[in-house]
Amino acid sequence: MAKIAYSPPEPNQIELSLFGPGYGECILVHLGCQEWLIVDSCVDQRSKQQPVLRYLKAIDVDPLSAVKLILATHWHDDHVRGMSQLVAECVSAEFSCSLALQREEFLRLVGKVGRQEAIRTRGLAEFYMVVERLKVRALGKPEVPPIKWSDANKRLLYRPGSGECPEVVVTSLSPSDSSISLALQQFRDLLPKNYERRKSVVACGPNHSAVVLLVQVADHAILLGADLEETEHPGTGWTVIVDSPERPQVLSSVFKVPHHGSVNADQPRVWSDMLVENPVAVLTPFRRGTKLPSEEDKARICGHTREAYSTASTKPLKQARGDRVADKIIKDTVKSIREIEGQVGHIRLRRFVGEKDSGKWDVELVEPAQDLCRS
Amino acid sequence: MRIQRTPARTSDTQQQNLASPVEATSWREFAEFRQPDLAHSLVIGPKGSQALIERHQGSVGRQQSPAENGTETVEFQEKPSLPATPGPPVEYTRARFLVLGSWEGVVLEVTNETFIARLTDIHSGRPDEIAEFHKSDLSGSDLELLEPEAIFYWFVGYNDNRSGQRARSSILRFRRLPAWTPEEDEQARAWAHEAAQILWRK
Q: Does the structure show a pLDDT above 90 at B46?
């Protein structure tokens, strides 16, 4: 596998970098002219570092001034781990998250469960720290709205084109009103009742609060599918997005496949109505519990496009090695054990806008990232 | 003579018998192990160091067989005594548990015979792992606490008994956390209100 060059993109070059260790994901988009967007967050469990910050520093980009928007698509652990550190380091960036998270139902959940160190609910604990950081920031700059709320067809970022800098429009396509109502019901169900036994809070599907994002840079569009799933409820999921007359009617050439390629997040009309033919599809696998994407999922995705890439393999990892005797006791005690996350893979796509556009995305993979259709 | 057989894969005696720290522990999480009716002690060093679980009365206790979920006792006939082989005298010391690895686990799924959990290393900082445990390794009281999202500790290490014999051992213990209180509910409500005031510009 070729080594990628650690140099910053040109001002008129778009980049999408997807980082994923096998549990978690983070997306970095260069909007041109050294302005960046970060969607979700993950941490390298081995080095305890943020792959996105490590990469930005490696290509000589200062996250403090270059990152303009950080967006949390939803609150689950595999999408927000390390988010509070991003908020702390990228001080120029605005923060955006789902409108569903604005409501009291979610805040009470964060206030009650998220600040309990004794129970391992990492997604809520991370969100608690994000809110605490935003509170400090808001008190220092009372004139700036601390959070941009994302919901269906909301423009989050706009930059007019000038000189070498291409025009940029970032639009959230979800959650819909119906999805927000269902998400609030989920939050109410998750909120522990008084006198109930204290335990961790694990999110249950389907994910109604996820923010799907459309990033348009000059003539190119990128569709970031978050973890949005199809549901049986009308007015929710992908169907309402595809059918929406209010969304920007553009075809995207890059697609971050939703929910790790699962079948319940697949809506064939997304491929036919919202994407160009043979788009570049990228995804992160999910190796905790149910493994995604399955072989059927891979076949389905590769039936839609010839170019699909994953940040890591879905094959189970081996047990992390430690003390030799401890490992022997572990082996004798458990039925099975394996590491969840593993090494962080990196998929990098770059493409020029304007006259230098070659007509296709340059794809570079950093191990363990791999070609989904040829692996 | 009656001896206890220790199955290769088993919970340790101390799985049931972790008890009240005699010495002050810097890790308040372990306070939940207190069981005043048992004269054992748990001594925990700073994070990253080895932990020691000690038993002052030194009873052998029962071993649970994973297959039968009960004590497995084996009878042996006394043999005619032979001349003793010369050797160093047995030195009776305090029993202890030498921790080689420790994790905090969150139960993800419970099946008929097993449960699946995410493990976070609290000993050496190994990456998170996912493991499938046998339910038969749990004591009766821990089995009652087994449900998705329940939290437990898992230790593996050496169990040194009073006569100096060492056995490899695994201890799995579900946490006894206090129930949610109305006061915490009020605090959460107040925190949410304050966050909304500042962030949402209400």
A: no
Which among A139, A202, A328 has CB closest to B149?
A: A202
Question: Which residues 252-281 in chain A show a CB within 8 A of chain B?
Answer: none
CA distance A311 to A55: 15
Interface test with A, best of B191, B197, B201 (most A CBs within 10 A): B191
Cα of A155 vs its chain's centroid, Å: 18
Torsion A133-A137-A142-A144 (CA) sign? negative
Say how far apart CA A127 and CA B185 lie, in whole Å: 18
Judged by CB atoms closer than 8 Å, whether chains meet at B129 and A342 is answered as no
Q: Which helix (H) or strand (E) holds B189?
A: helix B182-199
Q: Chain B partners of A197 at a C-beta cutoff of 8 Å? A: 177, 179
CA A298, CA A315: separation in Å to the nearest integer? 13
Burial A320-331, CB ≥16 within 10 A → b, else e: bebbeebbebbe
Nearest CB to A339; choose among B129, B148, B157? B129
* CA distance linking residue A8 with residue A158, whole number of Å: 22
pLDDT digits (tens, 9 = 90+) for A182-213: 999 999 999 999 999 888 888 877 899 999 99
At B39 the three-state DSSP class reads coil
Average confidence (pLDDT) over B102-128: 89
For A115-169, the pLDDT digits (tens) are 887 777 889 999 999 999 998 888 877 666 778 999 999 999 999 999 889 999 9
Other Cβ atoms closer than 10 A to A366: 20
Q: Which residue of B has its CA nearest to A45?
A: B127
Chain A's closest residue to B107, CA to CA, is A200
Q: How many CB pairs under 8 A join A and B?
A: 161
Tell me the per-residue pLDDT of B133-147, one tens digit each, with 9 for 90 and over. 999 999 999 999 999
Distance CA A292, CA B64 (A): 38
* Under 8 Å between Cβ of B152 and B18: no
Mutate which: A94, A98, A104, A107, vs B, most B CBs within 10 A: A107
User: In CATH, what class is A13-371?
Assistant: alpha beta
Closest chain B residue by Cα to residue A192: B180
Q: Which residues of chain A have pLDDT under 50?
A: none
CB atoms within 10 A of CB B128: 18
> Taking CB atoms and an 8 Å cutoff, what residues of chain B touch A46?
127
What is each CA distance from B93 to A184, A281, B20, B63, B90, in whole angstroms?
59, 64, 20, 21, 9
Tokens representing A32 are 């041109």
- Is A333's CB within 8 Å of B9's CB? yes
- Residues 6 or more apart whose Cβ sits within 8 Å of residue A210: A73, A74, A98, A174, A175, A226, A227, A228, A229, A258
> Which residue among A107, A325, A339 places its CB closest to the CB of B168?
A325
Predicted ipTM? 0.87
Task: Report the alpha-carbon distance of residue A187 to residue A104 in Å, rounded.
Answer: 9
Residue of B12, B15, B104, B129 best to disrupt the A interface, most CBs of A under 10 A: B129
